[in-house]
Amino acid sequence: MNINSFYKIYYKHRIIKANFFLKLYLFAILPFRYLLNIPFIPPKVNLDSHSLKNQNLFQKNLNFLFEYFNSDKGDYFLDQYIQPIKKNKIKIQAHGYSEIYEKYFFKKKENNLNILELGSFYGNAAASFYYYFKNSTIYSGDIYPDLYRYSSTRINNFYIDTSDEISIKENILNNNLDFDIIIEDASHSLKDQIISLFLLFKKISPKGLFVCEELDFPETRRDMNLNNEFPDLKQILLNIKQKRDFNSKYIEQKDKEYFLENLNNIEIYKGKTNEVAIIEKK
Length: 282
Known about the structure:
It contains twelve helices and eleven strands. The mean pLDDT is about 95. The longest helix is centred in the first third of the chain and has 18 residues, at about 20-35. The strands form three sheets. It has a seven-stranded mixed beta sheet, sandwiched between helices. A two-stranded parallel sheet has the order 1-6. A two-stranded antiparallel sheet has the order 2-3. The protein is of the alpha/beta class. The chain folds into two domains: about 5-40, no CATH class; about 45-280, 3-Layer(aba) Sandwich (Rossmann fold).
């Protein structure tokens, strides 16, 4: 984690809201807080080397792996979103998507797949997928790629800003690579969820999956829909399931038509705390 990412994750939102004197104080302490956190940042792990001594992990189910690598996709995890120096060993409830994912992923787990996760953060979910999908290549995109804690010949970590159509096009659409599974776990804001699905659906291989995590955030969190826009992605997907038309200023007509022509099925599930959509391609 570099100091720029540290600032944006932990201090930028506070500085924006602060008065003049508090701004000066926060900027003054920022370098010292960063230096204090450095010893608490875990070292990077080479999973190819790690696997030599942990062959048993290739046989574990998803929930075990999510909890082993501390991904919030499992049932419980240690809060990974606070400053490293403040971390404790108290497990808290996570999203609980494991059982839902097993339903779709288990039959594919031995295949040679290309898997893309957007919003990879530390890479804890990608490390889990490394062991679960032992023959697959994992692509991890995030706005803070320097946070990523894992390396492997089967893992590719790269920068992407999923709020920016140009960034999506330059980093994914313009590449000659399709994906069998795309997991969208980035900002969860209304616009970002919509453009990620409708821009990237063409990059999914036939019979592939697009997963949108925390689908309900734009309707349950004010900061995910600041302008109170309508419809959000959940409402769009429900309209499609009910064979109703929909429109959004974030969806181009050609992308809408492609999505509808190539869609096989949509299911929306409730995890332990939030909802997740599983979208299957023909």
